[in-house]
């Protein structure tokens, strides 16, 4: 809004606005001498709310004329702002047509929470954010991709803006996708020696107290053999080791598709390879939830263990309710959740930044969500989710979060360090192809 008082304009932002009314008595003067005055009740409706002065004299004033700021006025204010970091053009402001919707790239050195219900455009919009980060910054990115949505992040789509497509080519060459069915070095694989003993015990559903004999046998075996081999366990003279071998066989852990076998290298090498600008870990290509949780825990754990290298990396966890849920359903998920919580609490000072994305904020581990300083909020139809988000992100005006129920597909509220002034924006077009897709509704065709 622009406020004009005595010819002096101020640019302001409305943060909340609601309709209110009051009733008052109005006395009308008599029209003729000796006639009685007339009294009437008048209903007055008015808008009230909160706002801030963005630019201009911030001194108090009695009243001012208010009008909607024009697109050029908002754009000029944005251009006059101090820019210490790259600005990511994610789209345009929803309430100011033609004005770019910008996010401060430097703000991604804080944890970010992206939330939106199914159909809100969450995955598409996350792709836009990743593309702009790859194109405008040098920040390395590791993506845990549970639905294979970002496996084509290195492929420029047909019809993309030619200028952006040309600029993106360099970034695209740095995108490495690791998938179960990929050939050669890009096959998603792990060596047992890559995995810490706690995670291995979780994969075998071993409790250090209830299963103390087998747990001790596992620890002893890993010290001597470094990795679990079913043959060595079965042939051991230690009865607990043989029992451990039966557990491995019965759970099918030895048949996981993720094991590297005799192949050299693993996905963890790429995670720490400075030459790999963006590593997409297609955990959605793994055949079982246990393997997906195993890889997620191994990646997060490895990043945490090597935190003292202080190499900045953005860790993107899509559909994070599966990786770090509020209530982990088993030990493997609990291990991954603990790693995520540890990174959320202490990782930032080591250059480990989280971007977690989900449909339901209440399903995320509270100690992960509470550490997020940035919010990207898309449509939420659940009032309970909106209220939960309000409580978690107290730095965002509640009325703006409440507006999320009215958002159209691709519209979002962004706030935090990535957008010091909360902004409503409409995400722009992707440069790259989308990986996942809905099943076509051909079954609904007219017969």
- Structural classification: alpha/beta
Instruction: Measure the end-to-end span.
Output: 53 Å
Question: Proportion of β residues?
Answer: 15-25%
Q: Note the overall shape.
A: elongated
Query: What composes the largest sheet?
Result: 11 strands, mixed
The DSSP helix count reads 13
Parts with pLDDT < 50 across at least 5 consecutive residues: none
Total strands: the figure is 15
In the sheet with the most strands, the strands line up as 6-5-15-14-13-7-12-11-8-10-9
The residue fraction in helices comes out at 25-40%
From the alpha carbons, calculate the radius of gyration and give it in angstroms: 28 Å
Order of helices and strands: EEEEHEEEHEHEHHHHHEHEHEHEHHEE
Mean pLDDT: 89
Task: Kindly describe this structure.
Helix content is 30%, strand content 24%. It is built from 13 helices and 15 strands. The chain has an 11-stranded mixed sheet with strand order 6-5-15-14-13-7-12-11-8-10-9. A 4-stranded antiparallel sheet has the order 3-2-1-4. Helix 5 (212-225) crosses helix 7 and helix 9 packs parallel to helix 10.
